[in-house]
Amino acid sequence: MMNSKKCLLKQEQKKEDSKILLHACCGICSSYPVSFLKDAGYDVVVHFYNPNIYPSEEYQKRLEAERTLCAHFGVELIEDEYNPNEFFDFVKGFEDEPEKGLRCDKCFELRLERAAQKAKELNITNFTTSIVISPHKNFQKLAKIGENIAQKNGLTFLAIDFKKKDGFLKTNKIANALSLYRQNYCGCKFSIR
Question: Which residues share a beta bridge with 192?
């Protein structure tokens, strides 16, 4: 009886460890990461938190694409509150920074910190982000931000460079097959220019 109880506890622990929270920036970018993580044996929970997206009509288009993707893969989608003022307050003073500059770092920090908080709320110890799949984003920089946030919160950030091994091509194939909305700028008001 005791051995079966230990075995059951190990199975439950293994199941908990197989959960991962994926911060999703958009349906296109999260297409391959969701597929990759599922194939790797993870129970994927997608977290859509993007107060940086401007305007609200754009936000809704990206959220709808994420809903379509998550329904296709049968994964849970957590839609966080959309409050653009959170983003504007967090990047105050960095508005004139160029793309890929300090404003973008602050934006990544804001969203990954919220993803870590959500993971803790859900008792998920692993988290990562789909932002890294973009060829326009610096993987090392994002990984460092994610790892610092994970350490601060007692979590594990899986620094997976999803764009490796044709990941960006794969994500686009999935997105095209699902006819997902395709944006033409990163997301914030400042990136439109």
Answer: none
Do residues 61 and 20 make contact, with C-beta atoms less than 8 angstroms apart?
Answer: no
Contact in structure between 33 and 130 (CB atoms under 8 Å): yes
Q: Please, what's the b/e burial string for 33-42 (b: 16 or more CB within 10 A of its CB; e: otherwise)?
A: bbbbbeeeeb
d(CA 134, CA 161): 10
Residue-level pLDDT at 192:
86
The angle that helices 56-73 and 27-39 make with each other, rounded to 10 degrees, is 20
CA atoms within a 13 Å half-sphere pointing along the CA-CB vector of 107: 25
**How far apart are the C-alpha atoms of 13 and 21, rounded to whole Å?**
17
Domains of the chain by start residue, with CATH: 18-192 (3.40.50.620)
- Name the more confident of 13 and 156: 156
Q: Is the pLDDT of residue 80 over 80?
A: yes
Is 0.85 topped by the overall pTM?
yes
User: In the structure, what pLDDT confidence band is assigned to residue 10 with cuts at 50, 70 and 90?
Assistant: very low
d(CA 193, CA 190): 6
